[in-house]
Amino acid sequence: MPSDRTSPALPAPRPHRVVVLALDGALPFELGIPQRIFRLARDERRRRLYEVVTCSVRPPGPVETDADFAIMVENGPEALATADTVVVPASYELGPVHDEGVLTEELAAALAHVRPGTRLVAICTGGYVLAAAGLLDGRPATTHWASAEHFQRLFPKVRVDAGVLFVDDGDVLTSAGVAAGIDLCVHIVRRDHGSAVANEVARRTVVPPHRDGGQAQYIERPVPDPGQSSTTNARAWALARLQEPIQLRDMAAQESMSVRTFTRRFREEVGVSPGQWLTGQRVERARHLLETTALSVDQVASDAGFGTAQSMRQHLQAALGVTPTAYRRTFRPDLSTACGE
User: H or E element: which one contains 131?
Assistant: First the structure.
């Protein structure tokens, strides 16, 4: 006889706890990025996937910013011990951290609360803090392009890449300034929960859903000169037919440009070559299909425009470090067997 008892509801998963370290001289924009991005991330039942709190290196109280106002922080450095991820945004008042590459006693005591294995994230000059703590030694990292040369001189053990938007080195991630901090946080959401969740966050915040970390920080001509055509139409044309073979000359024809002019203008506006951009868009399409459909690898490869499963596998390995099956298993274990390799 079947029981009329209903199974008890499973408890909601604990949100990933992000603790943001507010330093004196903090830039309000960068300081607010983790709150804005991570708090918008929701699962299919609209439950928050992240809990975000802000702390200071001192007991609760005001923290000066680089603007004409201070912020009241309700958590002291002890909050760092509760973090799954610690984010260190930029500051213009790092003192000996910036000038000599050494931590203040106050900052060192605060960072001592961070548990081993905690994911560490720096936005812009926040990377100076991680580097001064020795946490970037031997690792690739980036910072704002205007600070990169000084950063490298001060921290010679860090492998500084001055040209990219952000660097993901697993448990330690660093970004360039301002908008690159948004790109990095959206990337983290995508890495943790897949492209569908990240794209929803991007839509809510009206930012690009994906700018690859390797994209150039400094784009020569981000806004086309008056009277000159941009490459916007060509990009829209290509996105509408990613599943088809797309030749560079076909993209150039959409803007009535020669291939040489189009390639130069594209790189000036987007920061990467047309081929690199196209591959990146196809990788994103493949990720989305692997996360949200039961299509086989061959079908995903075809729909994403890679032509063959082998080609797609090579590109995903290069971009993500995993095979299509491994990627799908991360986000849709119930579909992993549908993705034969």
Answer: helix 127-132
pTM for the full model? Answer: 0.77
Give the burial class of 235: count Cβ atoms within 10 A of its Cβ; 0-12 exposed, 13-18 middle, 19 or more buried.
buried
CA 302/CA 150 separation, integer angstroms: 46
Model confidence pLDDT, tens digit, residues 137-191: 999 999 999 999 999 999 999 999 988 899 999 999 999 988 899 999 999 999 9
* 8 Å CB contact between 88 and 21: yes
The answer to whether the Cα torsion of 314, 179, 92, 87 is positive or negative is negative
Contact assessment for residue 142 and residue 148, using Cβ atoms and an 8 Å cutoff? yes
Measure the CA–CA gap between 81 and 27, rounded to whole angstroms.
Answer: 24
Angle at alpha carbon of residue 246, lines to 199 and 291, rounded to 5°: 30
Angstrom CA distances, 165 to 32, 143, 181, 213, 295, stand at: 18, 8, 8, 5, 32
Residue 247's DSSP bridge partners are: none
Q: Are 147 and 125 in contact (CB under 8 A)?
A: yes
